[in-house]
Amino acid sequence: MTSALFSPITLRGLTLANRIAVSSMCQYNAQGGSANDWHLMHLGQFAMGAAGLVMTEATHVSPEGRITPKCLGLYSDDNERALKRVIDFCRQYGVTALGLQLAHAGRKASAHTPLDSGAPLGPEEDPWLTLAPSSLPYGPGWHAPRAMTEVDLAEVKAQFVAATERALRIGFDLLELHAAHGYLLHEFLSPISNRREDAYGGSLENRMRFPLEVFEAVRRVWPEDKPLGVRVSATDYVEGGWTVDDTVVLATELRALGCDFVDVSGGGLDPRQQIPLGPGYQVRFAEQVRREAGIPTWAVGMITRARQAETIVAGGQADVVAIARAMMFDPRWAWRAALELGAETPHSRMYARCHPSSWPAASTMVDSAA
Ligand SMILES: Cc1cc2nc3c(=O)[nH]c(=O)nc-3n(C[C@H](O)[C@H](O)[C@H](O)COP(=O)(O)O)c2cc1C
């Protein structure tokens, strides 16, 4: 049997061995924005698995852009050194490509980790001034952000560029800009969070301006042969918010600027959101964007089973599936999927003898009574 999920995909100069990406997952365990031994273990376990690509967690371009004080950053030499150590380690022993997600949390910064409530930092907890397109808090009790001035816009754009230069020195294969989940770039896109009256607010064209400018600036310094994509929320899941049709327009603009893929997620902008959760609940958005904007897409959200993932790729709904929680639960997810779909996958040399095909004939990973 030939598996579409386990067929390679080429984006610019990078060929992924298959269509499975480990989706970005914040770990809230950095110090001063720097990665540590936890990240060696966390990303290392995925790097020796069989996904074609492992994405880092949201990695922030400035201290103020971090969601929490424990988020990863790439704004200092220390951050760069610490992340390079992790990526070198993954490279030495792993078999996957490695991607970085660059982010700025905007008005959702200065918060506790989700495990510690996820609430905004209180007045005694060293909160910081957050930035956003307009001075509108995320929800009741949240920080009122400063509406970004022209100087702020230029500064944040420069921070994205500086972090990209650091990513290049570290040696990442692929870069993704985080414009989803209610963080800064998404805040510019949505009419709910962007009420500006200048060239960066109002019409769809104006609301897209800053995210597109950031993309262009990053594309200029990220090498021609390396893929650059964007994670978007296809919809705010709120009446009057950003829609999937808007996402198609954005994706079309991004494609014209040299964007190689759109990673289609959803929500996160407004606490009033109503998300109809269920298996593959966002796949239809990836499919629409792929069809209407003519750009490769990633599907994400409750993709948990091998045959489900195979159907998404084989049916042309998305080019790549990004998997988060199921990967955390089972970092060998892709090895098992390959077994189920009868596909070949790369292994670390040291683990060559683990593959069930080399076990005694009577041994199997699958219980025949099941
Ligand atoms: C612990 C955790 C951390 C996450 N951190 C990020 C992140 O840093 N960046 C991001 O874009 N999405 C993040 N997400 C969202 C996931 O990448 C993914 O889109 C979401 O969990 C849905 O996929 P799943 O059903 O396979 O888990 C996170 C999800 C989880 C569970």
Short summary:
By secondary structure, the protein is α/β, with parallel strands linked by helices. It has helices at 37-47, 77-93, 150-170, 184-189, 204-221, 244-256, 283-293, 306-314, 325-329, 333-341, and strands at 9-11, 14-16, 20-22, 53-60, 72-73, 97-103, 131-132, 146-147, 174-179, 228-233, 261-265, 297-300, 320-323.
List ligands, each type once. Answer: flavin mononucleotide
Overall geometry comes to globular
Query: Helical proportion?
Result: 25-40%
Q: What is the H-and-E element order? A: EEEHEEHEEEHEHHEHEHEHEHH
Key terms:
single chain; about 375 residues; alpha/beta; 10 helices; about 15% strand; globular; binds flavin mononucleotide
Q: What would your notes on this structure say?
A:
By secondary structure, the chain is α/β, with parallel strands linked by helices. 32% of the residues lie in helices and 15% in strands. The protein has ten helices and 13 strands. The strands form three sheets. An eight-stranded parallel barrel has the order 3-4-6-9-10-11-12-13, surrounded by seven helices. The chain has a two-stranded antiparallel sheet with strand order 1-2. α8 links the parallel β12 and β13 (320-323). α1 (37-47) runs parallel beside α2 (77-93), α2 packs parallel to α3 (150-170) and α5 runs parallel beside α6. The radius of gyration is 20 Å and the shape is globular. The model has no long low-confidence stretch (mean pLDDT 96). The protein binds flavin mononucleotide. Flavin mononucleotide (FMN) binds at residues 23-26, 57-58, 101, 178, 180-181, 231, 265, 300-303, 323-326.
